[in-house]
Please model this.
Amino acid sequence: QVQLVESGGGLVQAGGSLRLSCAASGRTFSTYAMGWFRQAPGKERELVAGINWRASSTYYADSVKGRFTISRENAKNTVYLQMNSLKPEDTAVYYCAADRLLYRSQVPRGPHEYGYWGQGTQVTVSS
Model:
């Protein structure tokens, strides 16, 4: 089983950068596709970025494409989300999640396809 803990959130000015980290337990971490979701008050949880188990395929929401980068270091059991050129609309609680299945080639898009979730980290972008 996988346990996930996010860190790196905080308050940043518009145009600034943050790097979120998600530390995972379990030696099978490298076999899971991973995703970063965010949820703002009153909004649905949405997939921001995802990466498959080989790190050979990534997905980015149109709203963050070109600004955010997802990566993973399997040896450290950690997935990252580098967020640049942050905008106030990026304000949300960000969650990392692990695929409910192993060895997924395609990045899952829906929250229901992820079986493990972190507690979330707040990202607030001021104007």
